Amino acid sequence: MSIKEYRTAIEARGGLLVVKDTAGIAFGDRVQIKDHAGNTRNGQVIRSADNEVLILVFEGTDDLDLENTWVRFLDEPVEIALSPEILGREFNGLGVPRDGRPPVLSNIRRPVGGSAINPAARTYPREFIQTGISTIDGLNSLVRGQKLPIFSGSGLPHNRLAAQIGRQAKLVDQESSFSVVFAAMGVSYADAKFFRDEFASSGVLRNVVMFINLADDPPVERLTLPRTALTAAEYLAYDLDRHVLVILTDMTNYAEALREVATAKGDVPARKGYPGYLYSDLAEIYERCGRIHNRHGSITMMPVVSMPSDDITHPIPDLTGYITEGQIVLSRELHNQGIYPPVHISPSLSRLMKDGIGKDDTREDHPRVAGQIYALYARAQETRNLASIIGADELSERDRRYLTFADAFDERFVGQGESEDRSIEATLNLAWELMSMFPRDMLTRVKETDLAKYYQGTD
Amino acid sequence: MSETKRTGVIRDINGPIVTVELPGVRSGEQVKIGDLGLFGEVISLRGQLAIVQTYESTDGVRPGEPAQGLGWPLSVELGPGLMGGIFDGVQRPLEKIALQSGDYIRRGISVPALDRAREWEFEPNRELSPGAKVGPGSVLGTVQETTTVLHRIMVPPGVEGELLEMAPAGEYDIESTIARVRDPRGISHRLSMYQRWPVRKPRPYLRRDDGISPLITGQRVIDTFFPQLKGGKGAVPGPFGAGKTVVQQQIARWSNADIVIYVGCGERGNELVDVLESFPELDDPYTGRKLMERTLLVANTSNMPVVAREASVYVGITMAEYYRDMGYDVVMLADSTSRWAEALREVSGRLGQMPVEEGYPAYLASRLAAVYERAGRVETYGAGSGSVTLIGAVSPPGGDFSEPVTSHTKDIIETFWALSKELADARHYPSIDWVTSFSKHVQTAAQWWHKEIDPDWEKRRTAALALLARDAELSRIVNLVGPEALSDAQRWELEGASLIKEGVLQQSALDEIDTFCSPQKQYALLDLAITIYKRGAALIKLGVPVSELQHLPLMAKMRRIKSMYSSEQLDQVLAFRADVDHAMESVRIEYAKHGEQA
Ligand SMILES: Nc1ncnc2c1ncn2[C@@H]1O[C@H](COP(=O)(O)OP(=O)(O)OP(=O)(O)O)[C@@H](O)[C@H]1O
Ligand SMILES: [Mg+2]
Fold first, then answer.
1. In B, residues 244-273, which contact A (CB 8 Å cutoff)?
2. Residue A3 above 90 pLDDT?
3. Which of B440, B472, B492 is the last residue of a domain?
4. Residue B28 included in any domain
5. CB contact, 8 Å: B358 with chain A?
6. Chain centroid offset of residue A288 CA
7. Nearest to A396 among B421, B483, B551 (CB)
């Protein structure tokens, strides 16, 4: 089919453009739009009828003048060019360079939409990644191929934590680090700069690809950005055999862009105005991570989700939690106490921890230590609540012990330096030191053999 | 439905909803769409136009491309070769698809569910000889499908008459004729080892029966506190990460069902891989065979097309009914029915139907009820009694149980295992909340427990629940006035409740020993916890201070013993009972001495 140019746009609103008198336009195809000023915008067909199509315009429809809009259907899907040269580069959501250097030339072009991995082709992720952060490694371990988001709030140090993990993540006994695909949607200039400087100063920049859409860039572009970034990640992982860590920040901006477009389309809203398909849409992104049989590389994902008004039941963190394999939750309270990283362990979880830790992976007592710490901390939280009602003096001696434990735990186990890279051994030893504040008979989640080996108390 | 194929043309593509001009096509009919030949299903008709929902992504499809009506509704293939397999939401075999199309699922790929080339050892039913009257469900013969599953080859529904001929024992592929039947009109039917069935239509049976025996799952909080029956319907609602999938996988692993059908409906790919990788290694505690031999997976993961997600539940339940018709007890697990409901919502939204609550269409409740209605214990046509137990996970947005899917489900089901975020956050697993959960089957289950395990079962169960209720009450008091306000007897009640929680209710799926707990061991643990509490309470009445009891070594042991001895080492668990008696008696004697001295 030859590429035809249409001047029959009849409607433009909220990032959507309607063009009539079309024929045989493929659903999902790429579109190029030239506006009255001669600038090119990009789009995608999101509904195609006999003689009319609906186009999503990534740069938005602001300023379009229907008389002077030329639309070209490129007869190809939305795709990007890939080569090893993408490493060290910076692109926008459509794969156009942002770093002032020439576009990537390659005959490897991949549609950014991706397609579903056959579940029968997946391998269960089980290789422990040491991030050097005690609350993650010890209690919510990350494994290669896992999607583990950071749930945060405005003003909390999620970016610092994500950067620290990007810097420190490695397999135990292996120095080989990850290639990083960094995808930023609607972030501030300062945040983007923070990551750029961070990667540059730690010398990993040549192992990083950045896809960036700033807060003042077109919001619709945010819808393709994570897909473009993941297409690059898949190329690095499965064509070049690399282990890739994908950082997506901030998924809340992504979901808001989706809501904007859905509203313009008139889609039926489900909760808080977000469309009913938000779950499936997010899943298309998150499920692109994992391990595949007979492929050497892997994709591990850390999306950052800032929770509107710190509300974990808000649709964006909620639906994310329903898709990802756990979550690391940051707490404003800990942050206000000056604790970094302010990881709130109670609502945090890693679902893939079970097969990545223990005897052959980290240390034999690891799973039980994690369980015991959780049980103690849960009880300590109850005690804190009780103390805030009736006063600490009214507590029994046993209860006061929980308070001392909780404080020490927050300060020493949760808290650590921004460049402090703790080994898993050190993390577990620290856990035992804190657990040993209790008599043996209160530590019923660990085995008696664990107590014999690691208990440091006097009782 | 007629077998004539009709052709037409695509008019409009709106994501998975495609409008085609296809005169004469019927509602519910399967349609092939476009040059790629994507599969879909007609969901409504308007004049010459048919609205089709497609099971695959429509990227690249153009108006003007052809469409073809296939003449039949969405159906599944039923015959030997299903067990141990993994199928997508429209029953395509995913392992074979991986061989043909690699790591990603290629669109338009069409592979039949059952292997046409494989031959099975058919053993004819010796009781039938030519001339015999046969009808739907009559067992023509058997095939050993896996080492644990004897597959009964049955006359399909709709065929009835005189057996003209039956194949001798031997190896046949599933398309070979193994019998011929002449119906009363004189028409002869050629029967092979497989049949097709439209998934949206329940398979027939003779009559419906009440459930009589509990489904033993090896999970204490389920079997002992909120039991399910074979043929029952249940729901596991809970916020993300509370443990719905683990509960379902535990049931898939350890329940005393003959067949397990696990439907991953809009959930994670890795969870299915977990089952695929671990079940072939795990032993069924009842048969000693590998678990995968009785298990079948249906996978429509969250990133797979949403319309096939809606179909996957029907595909799963139809296969469940088919094995039920062979006289088996089948458990079907659907994780998650919320994703199924969301698929309904998405399609209805694209059709512009009027939403009623949170965007869901008005028919949500009736569709849900109709799916659950397909569970049950029945008298089959030809193989005695069989059952389908249906357990659905529910994923309420924000963990809010008042949302439409949870609340409608709650009205339909008989067991409700409500997972609590608070318990999960404290790593109290399974996080089934004993206050908000319920089972309507306790009375029926009690008969089984009293006969098979111990006549005191119900008394012990009630005592444990009473203690937990006291715990809640006393904790409220503590929160008001502090722990000092409690008497020793009340503190001991708290301690007793904590033994129930930690020693009985908590059960880690990851603990090698405790992951499965036989009914005998379940009762032994319950009895131990209640006994310790009662003996202690009696001592406190005599004036023994609670602190004397709290630090007895038996208290720590009661919390640990579940993972010290397996169900096979029941005698060791029972032996602890004697230690308890002994220790409590020593305290009594000691205290009596003190009493005399003072
Ligand atoms: N019985 C159990 N024993 C041990 N761990 C458990 C148990 N139940 C849940 N868990 C822990 O909780 C995690 C989350 O459980 P699960 O995946 O079943 O949650 P879910 O309710 O299905 O969540 P989602 O709705 O997001 O799928 C598990 O990965 C496991 O670590
Ligand atoms: Mg789940």
1. 264, 266, 268-270, 272-273
2. no
3. B440
4. yes
5. yes
6. 12
7. B483
- pLDDT score for B2: 46
State whether A115 and B560 contact (CB < 8 Å): no
Question: Is residue A124 less than 8 Å (CB to CB) from chain B?
Answer: yes
- Which residues in B169-180 are b (16+ Cβ under 10 Å) and which e? eeebbbeeebbb
- Residue contacts between A and B (CB atoms, under 8 Å): 225
For residue A213, the SS3 value is strand
Q: Is residue A361 part of a domain?
A: no
CATH code, domain with A62: 2.40.10.170
Domain that holds residue A447: 366-454
Answer whether B86 sits within 8 Å of A322, measured CB to CB: no
Q: Tell which A residues from 301 to 320 touch B, by Cβ distance under 8 Å.
A: 313-315, 318-319
Same domain, A384 and A442: yes
Phi, psi of A64 (to 5 degrees): -75, 145
Q: Does any domain span residue B174?
A: no
User: Tens digit of pLDDT for each residue in A343-369?
Assistant: 999 999 999 999 999 998 999 999 999
CB A226 within 8 A of CB A299: no
Same domain, A296 and A271: yes
Which residue, B37, B57, B73, sits at the end of a domain?
B73
Residues B260, B388 within the same domain:
yes
Token pair for A168: 């420190």
**Best probe residue, ligand 1, of B271, B394, B429, B502 (max atoms within 8 Å of C-beta):** B429
Q: What number is the ipTM of this complex? A: 0.92
Summarize the annotated binding site of B for ATP as residue ranges. 238-245
Residue B583 has pLDDT above 70, yes or no: yes
With CA atoms as reference, report the closest residue to A161 among A135, A186, A181, A183.
Answer: A135
Cβ–ligand 1 contact at B305 (below 6 Å): no
What is the model's pLDDT at position B78? 97
Whole-prediction pTM: 0.94
B506-519 confidence digits (pLDDT tens): 999 999 999 999 99
Last-in-domain residue among A355, A375, A404: A355
- Give the integer Cα–Cα distance in Å for B437 and B563: 25
Give A173's pLDDT tier (boundaries 50, 70, 90): low
Q: What is the CATH number of the domain that holds B23?
A: 2.40.30.20
B243 C-alpha to ligand 2 centroid (Å): 7
Burial-class residue A313 by CB neighbours within 10 Å (0-12, 13-18, 19+): middle
List, in order, residues 6 or more apart from B384 with CB less than 8 Å away: B327
Per-residue pLDDT of A219-273, as tens digits, reads 989 999 999 999 999 999 999 999 999 999 999 999 999 999 899 888 888 889 9
Whether residue B221 is found in the same domain as residue B296: yes
CB A290 to CB B425 under 8 A? no
Same domain, yes or no, for B235 and B292?
yes
Q: What is the pLDDT of residue A174?
A: 67
**The pLDDT of residue A175:** 62
Q: How many domains does chain B have?
A: 3
- Domain with B48, as residue range(s), is 6-73
Which of A171-180, A207-216, A277-286 shows the lowest mean pLDDT across its residues? Answer: A171-180
pLDDT value at A171 more than 80: yes
Q: State if residue B498 touches ligand 1 by the CB under 6 angstroms criterion.
A: no
Query: Do residue B369 and residue B478 come from a single domain?
Result: no
Domain count, chain A: 3
pLDDT of A2 above 80: no
Same domain as A223, residue A132: yes
